[in-house]
Amino acid sequence: MTLLCVPIFVEDIESAISDAVEARHRGADLVELRIDSYYSGSDDEQQVPELVRLLQRCPLPCIVTCRPVLEGGQYDGPDDARISVLERLCAAARAGEHPPRYVDVELATYTRSQNIRQKVNLCVDHEGQLRAVDTGLILSSHDFQGRPADLFRTISLMAGEAACRVSKVAYRARSLRDNLELLDVLSESHELGRPMIALGMGPFGMMSRVLAGKFDGFLTFASLRRSSATAPGQPTLDELLGLYRFRSISRNTKVYGVIGWPVEHSISPQVHNAAFESRGHDGVYMHLPVAAGYEPFKATLLAMADHPMLDFCGCSVTIPHKENLVALAREMIEAGDDRWTLDPLSVACGAANTLTIERDGKGQALKFAVANSDGPGAAGALRDALGTLVGQTVLVLGAGGTARALAASVVLEGGKVAVSNRTPERATELCAQLRDALRCDPAHLHAVADEDELAELAAGKAAAVFNCTSAGMAGGGSQGQLPASEEFVAALHRHCVVAESVYRPLMTPLLAAATGRGLQTINGLQLFVRQAAEQSRWWTGQEPSSALMMQVAREAMQIDAESAE
Ligand code: NAP
After folding, report:
1. Is residue 127 part of a domain?
2. Are 26 and 59 in the same domain?
3. Is 322 a catalytic residue?
4. Residue 351 Cα, ligand 1 centroid: separation in angstroms?
5. Ligand 1 site-directed mutation target among 272, 422, 469, most atoms within 8 Å of CB
6. Closest Cα to atom 11, ligand 1: which residue?
7. Could you count the other beta carbons within 10 Å of the beta carbon of residue 265?
């Protein structure tokens, strides 16, 4: 079982004890006491007895670490002094029967001098140890710049040290692909006869931390609170246990995620993990940051899909990679890989947001299905509100990716679409392209000609108006703006359904105006949940609970239930 370790920076003894008690209460298996901020290397006679008191009162087994500045810690005194303090701590604690379960010493320090090696060996268990010692040695190596060039040499040197019980490598992951190598290191560690810790630091490294259990890692770290993280990119205990359900991740767990750039703000992990859990689906869903550009997208996605043990079974794809997903599927299909398929909507839109990978029992990929759930999600919400889309006219505001997916879906369901955009030429172009792709005529899909036609649509011709622009979105330059004129919104007939794709904020200026007039509305979160539910159905083959997904989405956005209605 992969252990869950909470690192605690020891600033004062009582706080460290209370953090260790909390860590135990919240489900950790052990704590790492980082004494480098507490122990100064001076001759302060009080420090060692105080630290022994901490060890004696610590309610969980512990790792004691005094990390030097050179490897990302805070200790900047002489090496001899910090190794001596570990030695004194082990001896004194052993006398009181609460020795550390492990001490962590950097490989670089351990191999620097025979004197240090001997001192460390005196306090840890190994074959040459003459007395019974309960403390094991973790040999570690950290690189805050990137993957060390001598990674495998480092691992082999650690494994060659007879006193080493656990090897640890941690380095800054510079892309998702670095995680795959870290996970390979974990799965191959049994060949070296040593348990391993292999972790990626920084925002790209989350995958190695969450999936440590799937690959038999010795432990993964999780901080008690965001502010107490001891390495960049370290998850909190709540994230690891709650969001990612770390305890239920096993060798067979399927891996999913959302690929985008930036993507950290996405609430998809909360929503999809909750849906998996409620249906008993053995899957975990993460943020998958991939830098903009076709090449990083293709290289990352194929590396993950081809990994023999990752069980990467699907992903959501968001800005700026929706077009890249279609381009990749086309490239694979043209290269003769008949496992790849593209659904008609993605073909028509030139953009897709979902990949579903079907695998055989041995993990081999059998099918790669690329599809678009944005369109069906939006059209489905409209269908629910209108009863049917057949023969109904929908006015789409905007001519970007969302407008395109919605317009195509409405037409495919037998509805009619009129498109109006701030830049009218883009609406004309969108309609011409979609008419070609869907082989439909202007009676089913056309760009709004002028203000008179817009007024006619508002007065009764349009059964629904759908905002597919980013006007009103928080954080952009158009927060607080309507996607159309005030006169247009004021003229909307009383049976017109008003739908919104923007969900930050949930109550946009358009929805506020429509609600104020008593019109039926669909908010952006409803659309988000619809498209996410569609994806979950494709991945799990089960009907997800949309109500649960909505509740979790609201929580993730910290929206109270009433204001989301
Ligand atoms: P996009 O491709 O960048 O298109 C943006 C569209 O908005 C363009 O038509 C643009 O007009 C128009 N626009 C931007 N600012 C405007 C303003 N101040 N007034 C009027 N029109 C304006 O974006 P997208 O990917 O289609 O996304 C559109 C919105 O949908 C975003 O807010 C996105 O977050 C949201 N969305 C929501 C969901 C969901 O699940 N709820 C899913 C996908 C997208 P020009 O052509 O004149 O520039």
Report:
1. yes
2. yes
3. yes
4. 15
5. 469
6. 422
7. 9
Please report the pLDDT score of residue 43 as a whole number.
64
Question: Does residue 398's CB lie within 6 angstroms of at least one atom of ligand 1?
Answer: yes
Q: Which of 121, 10, 541 is nearest to 20 (CA)?
A: 10
pTM of the model: 0.94
Terminal CA-CA length for the chain:
43
Q: Is 467 in the pocket of ligand 1 (CB under 6 A)?
A: no
Out of 344, 372, 400, a domain closes at 372
- Catalytic pick from 322, 367, 416, 461? 322
| Whether residues 384 and 344 fall in one domain | no
pLDDT value at residue 564: 41
Residues 6+ apart with CB under 8 A from 450: none
Q: What is the CATH number of the domain that holds 464?
A: 3.40.50.720
For residue 147, give the amino acid letter. Answer: R
Q: Are residues 402 and 456 in the same domain?
A: yes
469 lines ligand 1 (CB under 6 A): yes
215 and 289 belong to one structural domain: no
185 and 206 belong to one structural domain: yes
**What is the pLDDT, as a whole number, of residue 40?**
76
Predicted local confidence at residue 97, as pLDDT: 76
Instruction: Give a yes or no: residue 560 inside a domain.
Output: no
The ligand 1 atom at the shortest distance from the C-alpha of residue 476 is 15
Assess if residue 545 is contained within a domain.
Answer: no
Helices 374-386 + 524-540 axis angle, to 10: 120
Q: Separation of 408 CA from ligand 1 center, angstroms?
A: 16
Residue 559 lies in a domain: no
Residue 563 confidence (pLDDT): 45
Residues of the chain with pLDDT under 50: 560-565
What residue numbers bound the domain in which 199 lies? 3-250
The predicted pLDDT at position 194 comes to 87
H helix intervals, 11-145: 13-25, 47-57, 79-95, 107-110, 114-123
Mean pLDDT over the full length of the chain: 94
In the chain, the number of structural domains is: 3
**CB-based burial label for 203 (10 Å; 0-12, 13-18, 19+):** middle
Query: Does 182 lie in the same domain as 74?
Result: yes
7 - beta bridge partners?
A: 32
pLDDT (tens digit per residue) in 15-55? 999 999 999 999 999 999 999 989 877 766 788 899 999 99
Task: Clarify whether residues 88 and 228 are in a common domain.
Answer: yes
- CATH label of the domain that carries residue 277: 3.40.50.10860
